[in-house]
Amino acid sequence: MADLLDDAAVTGRLKELPNWTRDGNEIRRRVKAPSFMAGIELVGEVARAAEEADHHPDIDIRWRTLTFALSTHSAGGLTGRDFDLAARIDAIAERHGAD
Ligand SMILES: C[C@H](O)[C@H](O)[C@H]1CNC2=NC(N)=NC(=O)C2=N1
């Protein structure tokens, strides 16, 4: 099982991911896609990355605004797996021309 990160480690990893904010046991990012369908395609790609990593974000879809939240449920908080997937989500969002 992945190790829980302490507050200092979480703060350190968040510095590399300026689009993400911490809310308790999770980190969250909002992404605005160029259109609804672009957002759905982006979510599909995130879903494939999540399956590959065997780590799954909570996803909220509102027209072209997507919110991704990450936490490691089995560990009860934030681990390196959340930050690794967050970086992959950033790369996917950028490739899809999202803000
Ligand atoms: C068996 C499998 O590894 C676990 O159920 C995984 C699947 N995806 C997961 N995703 C997230 N976000 N947290 C988990 O603890 C988790 N556990």
Automatic annotation (TrEMBL):
It catalyses: (4aS,6R)-4a-hydroxy-L-erythro-5,6,7,8-tetrahydrobiopterin = (6R)-L-erythro-6,7-dihydrobiopterin + H2O. InterPro entries: PCD_sf, Pterin_deHydtase. This is Putative pterin-4-alpha-carbinolamine dehydratase. The lineage of its organism: Bacteria, Bacillati, Actinomycetota, Actinomycetes, Streptosporangiales. Keywords: Lyase. Belongs to the pterin-4-alpha-carbinolamine dehydratase family. SUPFAM superfamilies: PCD-like (SSF55248). It comes from the Bacteria. It holds the Pfam family Pterin_4a. Its EC number is 4.2.1.96. The keyword Lyase applies.
